Amino acid sequence: MMTETTWQTHAAALAATIAQEVNLSEAWRAAFEQTPRHRFVPDVAEDQAYEDASIVIKTIHIGGFDWPVSSSTRPSLMAYMLEALQLQEGMTVLEIGTGTGYNAALLCNRLGDDALVASVDLDAELVDAARARLDALGLHPTLTALDGRNTTTLGQTFDRIIATAGARRIPPAWGSQLNEDGRLVADVGGGTCPRIATLTRQPNGDLRGRLHTRPGWFMPMRPNAAHPHEHPGISPTPIDQDHAIETTTLTALQDLAENEGLAFAINWYMQPEMITDLPADSGHGPGSLITFTDGSWVETTKTSTRYSGPNPHLNDLAQLATAWRELGKPGSDDLRLTVTPDGAHTLSAYGYECLWQND
Ligand SMILES: C[S@@+](CC[C@H](N)C(=O)[O-])C[C@H]1O[C@@H](n2cnc3c(N)ncnc32)[C@H](O)[C@@H]1O
Questions:
Q1: Residues flanking ligand 1, CB < 6 Å
Q2: Which SS3 state, helix, strand or coil, does residue 272 take?
Q3: Disulfide check for 118: which of 113, 142, 179, 255 has CB 3.0–4.6 Å away?
Q4: Please, what is the average pLDDT of the chain?
């Protein structure tokens, strides 16, 4: 059992590690120093709880595989998002994805008033366990078991929303539950190229803001507590190398591996299964491999592009890569995102109205 002094030493060391990566304010440093993470991840050795690593707390066995469905997020990522939230004294905050309850504890510590903190998780079992851990520390935020994509049943609006489960797109409920000027921090885009987004609620109800180059890599929001993610059961579709066709029409795509902004755009608009880097020593690299769930794939390097499968989306890939080039090759942090109250999402860059025709 860790003594008070021991865990506090570990927590201070964790805060110092976080500060090497994130511009950590005094207020958040204090919250990390004063919150006992080991109490939220009881199944790992106590000192391991203070490593800057994510810790899985629940898996679901489907299709012969233990899918992780809940974890305590890597603390430095948490700190990055908490700083991006720009939380101030007296503000109300809603967290999507209670998980262990550790982040809710950090929010309570930072605000000094549990009544300002609400957190929801799809999984009632996790919510009950988190509540017990928080109660034991004398913390009583409002925890509710519900689908974080529809939080309107909470019947309350907030100054801040932080989503710690991945959202391909922003659910309309989040915009409607932010007060004017309220701020949302979430990991958007999904797939293999998500990005942190910081959006502010405008007077007309739109959410508007920017993307960061940093991915959250959060577990995607799942439709119900029994399923691991949006498309349960999929594992990477095997690719058919024997019938690959060489093409010269996709030159716009050839620097994909070096441009995270293009990878994000392809992931955002076309929602492939995966975009994978091909290392130089892979026999085909350096380059990128885009795979689709129907088994189609496109492999692109500096000098060649090959594809196979029923629908490798060649025209769309060519058009999108050309549009992205003509705009000036925006990186993720050059992109602006607008989400209207009816859920329409528009990506723009450098003042142009949209990145691609399919917006
Ligand atoms: C990375 S964990 C959250 C970590 C948490 N903030 C912490 O401090 O431990 C993601 C959580 O999102 C939850 N989740 C997944 N889909 C959800 C949904 N549709 N609505 C609400 N929560 C969801 C999962 O059950 C999981 O606990």
A1: 69-73, 96-97, 99-100, 102-103, 120-123, 126, 147-149, 164-165, 218-219, 221-222
A2: coil
A3: 142
A4: 91
